[in-house]
Amino acid sequence: MIKRGKPHPAYLELWQSRELARRVELGLKKLADCALCPRNCHVNRSEDKKRVCRTGRYAAVSSHFAHFGEERCLRGNHGSGTIFFSWCNLRCVFCQNYAISWAGEGRSTKPEELAEMMLELQEEGCHNINLVTPEHVVPQILEALLLAVEHGLRLPLVYNTSAYDSLDSLRLMDGIVDIYMPDFKFWDPENARRYAKAPDYPETARSAIKEMHRQVGPLVIDAHGVALRGVLLRHLIMPGGVAGTQEIMNWIGCELGTGAYVNLMAQYQAALYHCFKRVRNGQGSPESLKGRGHIGDHNKVFLAAPRTPSSASASLWFVRVTFSVPAFTAVTRVQIPSGTPNLFSRL
C-alpha cells in the first residue's frame, strides 16, 4: 500500500485532451448494438430497447447519498458519494439489494440529472463518487461525467462492480476510473450458473479484474487513510464453500500479488429472493417475512446463513494476501496457521 497526497482524478487529463468527449461518443454508439456486458444481448438500447439489464437509453438510479457503511478507506470522515444504479446483469438469488437490482426500484435519469447528483455529492464533502452496479450503464456514466467535470467535478471515481464486466466496457473506462472495487463472487462455473445465472462468470471476472489491476495498480491512499487509486477487492464468504473462497484467495495472491487487499464480507443472507417473490405473489408482507431463514428449494445448499452484523459492532477487515490461504472451515472465519505475521491490516 502506497501513501500520497491530495486526489487528482484520472479523468481530468482525458477531459483536457478531449479524449473523454471521444469516449462518450464511442460509448453511446455502442448502445445501438449492445454488447457492453458479457450478456451480449445485441439490442438497440439507443431506441430504448431492453433485455437482460432492463435498461434502455438512460440509466435508472435508485438513490444517491453520502454512504457511511462502505469500507473505511472509501467512507473516510465525510462518506462515500454513492450512486445506486437500478437493475443488474446478474441474477444472484442471495442479492441483498433485491429491490434495486431485481425489481428495478428507481427512475430513469437523464445525463444532466446524473451529473447534478455527482456535483451534489461533491458539495456535501464526500471523498469520492461511488458508482454501484455500473456494468450495464458505462456509456451513460461517461455522458454524465463529461457534464459534471465541465461544471467542476474533481472527485475520484469508484467503480463498484460485481466483476461481471466486458473488457470492451472496461477499456472505455481506462484512464477515467481511479478506484476499481470488484466483488469476486464465484470460482466454480456451475455454482455461478445455479446462483447467478451466469456460468461464464468466473472466467469473465478473472479477466475483468486483471484488466482493472492493469489500469490502476495496487491500492493508493492519502495521509488520512482514504483511497485515491487502485484495486480493492470484495468477496462474500458463503456457507458450504459455495463461493470457492480458497481458490479465489489463491488466485488473487498469484495474479495480483501480495499487495492486493480484499474485504472478506460476512453479510450473506439467503432469504431475500424468496421473500420478495412471496410478497409480490401476495403470500405475505415484508414485515411478516423479515428475518426468515432460507425459503424453498432454491437455496438448499445455503444452510445456517449467518446474520448480518450490526453496523454499530461490525468492523471491516482487509486480508492482505501474503500466502496460499488454507481451507476455509467456517462460514465467516478463516483458519489461520499459527505464526503467520501481519495477515490483517485495517485501513
CATH class category name: Alpha Beta
Q: Oligomer, anyone? A: single chain
Distance between the termini: 10 Å
Largest sheet: 12 strands, mixed
Residues in β-strands, percent:
15-25%
Q: What string, H for helix and E for strand, traces the elements in order?
A: EHHEHEHEHEHEHEHHEEHEHHEE
Q: Say how many strands there are.
A: 12
* Low-confidence residue ranges: 289-347
Radius of gyration: 20 Å
CATH architecture: Alpha-Beta Barrel
> What integer is the average pLDDT?
82
CATH homologous superfamily identity: Aldolase class I
Helix/sheet category: alpha/beta
The helix fraction, in percent, is: 25-40%
Please give a structural write-up.
This protein has 347 residues and is an alpha/beta fold. The protein has a single domain, classed as Aldolase class I (TIM Barrel, Alpha-Beta Barrel). It contains 12 helices and 12 strands. α2 runs antiparallel to α6 (138-150) and α5 crosses α6 (138-150). The longest helix is centred in the middle third of the chain and has 16 residues, at 201-216. It is globular.
Lay out the secondary structure.
Blueprint: E1 2-3, H1 11-16, H2 19-30, E2 59-67, H3 72-75, E3 80-85, H4 98-101, E4 107-109, H5 111-123, E5 129-132, H6 138-150, E6 157-161, H7 167-172, E7 179-182, H8 189-196, H9 201-216, E8 220-221, E9 227-236, H10 245-255, E10 261-265, H11 272-280, H12 286-289, E11 318-320, E12 344-345
Parallel strand pairs: 1-8, 3-5, 5-6, 6-7, 7-9, 9-10
Antiparallel strand pairs: 2-3, 2-4, 8-9, 10-11, 11-12
Helix pairs in contact: 2-6, 5-6
